[in-house]
Amino acid sequence: MERFSSISMAVVRRLPKYHRYLSELKKNDVKRVSSQELSRITGFTASQIRQDLNCFGGFGQQGYGYNVDDLHQQISKILGLDKIYKTVIVGAGNLGQAIVNYTFFEKSGFIPQAIFDVNPRLIGLKINDIKVHDVENLESFVKDNGIDIGIICTPKSQCQKVAEALAKGGVQAIWNFAPSDVSVHDDIIVENVHLSESLFTISYLLKEREEVSKAKKY
Ligand code: NAI
């Protein structure tokens, strides 16, 4: 994937976490937070947090910490959450429907314009008021409607074909849930999501805990 700045992906991947914790603090009406406090909540070290935020110009004040509202707003801006992105969801099955019904994405500026499927029983239906179209029309719809992001929720066998249609239509990014990496031109941002990685991490930690407690007994 082509990058346009020297900010490392490790920093980029921590930003949404900061954003989420700051949203919680904001909701709880917390006005000010120190980097130590942010460290306790996020699990990152205070110096890591300061270093990350310094990449974008700092925002904290010595002896005061961070103003929660300001920092939340700045990180929203850095993440581009003050913009609107048009999305399409491809695959109107369990996951596609769950994504369309989860309104948090829409509230965050990712606006679903259409859903696509091959199943004639789904085509023409509306899910959360968004129409399901025939996937045959995916490329032209993306082109005609200036779609920014394609969300792939099809079976693994179909994801490459779908990614190519999205790419030809001109999307800037693909959020791929199918359990197979897709290959498209380098200037398209691709994020592959695997919930199983998170679940298997739990599995590892459970196993580790069990082994340690067994070892302690002997
Ligand atoms: P599903 O079987 O309920 O839905 C798949 C939908 O895709 C169906 O409606 C089907 O008609 C449609 N479809 C098939 N070929 C298509 C094509 N060429 N163009 C457009 N639509 C097409 O499956 P489910 O449970 O919604 O899962 C969808 C995908 O997401 C699967 O690949 C699954 O492995 C993956 N998945 C990934 C997760 C993750 O953490 N990344 C979590 C859950 C599912």
TrEMBL record:
Protein's name according to its UniProt entry: Redox-sensing transcriptional repressor Rex
Gene name as annotated: rex_21
Entry keyword set: Cytoplasm, DNA-binding, NAD, Repressor, Transcription, Transcription regulation
Keyword Transcription: yes
PANTHER family, A to Z: REDOX-SENSING TRANSCRIPTIONAL REPRESSOR REX, REDOX-SENSING TRANSCRIPTIONAL REPRESSOR REX 1
SUPFAM superfamilies: NAD(P)-binding Rossmann-fold domains (SSF51735), Winged helix' DNA-binding domain (SSF46785)
GO MF assignments: DNA binding
CoA-binding domain boundaries: 80-181
GO BP term (any one): negative regulation of DNA-templated transcription
